Amino acid sequence: MGGRGDGQCPGGMVAAVRKYGSSVLLLLVGIAVLRVSLFGDLYLRYVQAGLRPYLIASGGLLALLGLVRSALTARTGWEDSRDADVHGRQDHCHAHTGAPRVAWLLTLPAVALLWFPPPALGSYSAAREEAARAEKFVVTFPALPAGDPVELSLAEFGSRAAYDSGYSLRDRTVRLTGFVTRDDDGTWYVTRLRVACCAADATAVKAEVRGVRAPEADTWVTVTGTWHPSGRLGSAAAWPPVLDATDARPIAEPADPYEER
């Protein structure tokens, strides 16, 4: 009972796990991609909204490939076992149990993505981004909309502060949204990451905040204040722009944490 003549390979469970390993990996990755792209807004941490259909299609295709491969593997195994004698079965089992167990570590990234999706890029990524500005970009910008405070992206605020020869930010109250980053000397910034395609090409935009106490790093805030001119337009001294703040209100992280380029 339970010997070699019962139609099972010695160590059959281990053999089965190794035999279906690639199928399970495809299925796990497909399900993980579908989870972040199909069931919520998690995909916005990694790519632009317009790429969602491609993520869904990719996840569905990977999951389907995993299922098809499992079915083909099961069919091949059934056909082999039906025709093999005991000696042949032992050779067959021996031939299919040599895969190294360490290969199963490849499933860990897929499982991690499925159960513990990483957060959006934060202060560490922004701190590594070097700002480079040149005087040749100094131009006159269109007038801002009437009424204060005016809601601006950090990219637009920074561009107007550093390059607008018409000084459209002067005497205007603005509202900026981003997460908190800090320097070692205590200076803090409201920061946002911009993406053209996905998180891999993210670049940082930020504004120094003065006049209010800094929240914890990576806290999302909406900051209200007025532009504090510093440095000659287009020069390194004009970047990052400075905001004299009157209020910094913590908020929940937006569903889409990035600004588009």
Helices and strands, in order, run as: HHHHHHEHEEEEEE
Using only CA atoms, what is the Rg? 28 Å
Strand percentage lies at 15-25%
Helix content: 25-40%
* Low-confidence runs of at least 5 consecutive residues: 1-8, 94-99, 130-134
Integer tally of domains: 2
Mean pLDDT: 78
Anisotropy-based shape: elongated
The neighbouring-strand order within the major sheet is 2-3-4-6-5
Query: N-to-C terminal Cα separation, in Å?
Result: 68 Å
Would you report the number of β strands?
Answer: 7
Secondary structure: elements and pairs:
Layout: H1 12-19, H2 21-38, H3 52-83, H4 86-95, H5 107-115, H6 123-127, E1 150-151, H7 154-163, E2 173-182, E3 188-195, E4 203-210, E5 220-228, E6 242-250, E7 258-260
Describe the 3D structure.
Residues 170-258 form the DUF1980 domain. Keywords: Membrane, Transmembrane, Transmembrane helix. The chain crosses the membrane at residues 20-39, 51-72. With 261 residues, the protein is α/β, with parallel strands linked by helices. The chain folds into 2 domains: 4-118, no CATH class; 124-260, OB fold (Dihydrolipoamide Acetyltransferase, E2P) (Beta Barrel), CATH 2.40.50. Helix content is 35%, strand content 19%. Strands 2-3-4-6-5 form a 5-stranded mixed barrel. α2 runs antiparallel to α3 (52-83) and α2 (21-38) runs parallel beside α5. It is elongated. The chain starts with 11 loop residues before the first helix and ends with a strand. The model is unreliable at 1-8, 94-99 and 130-134 (pLDDT under 50).
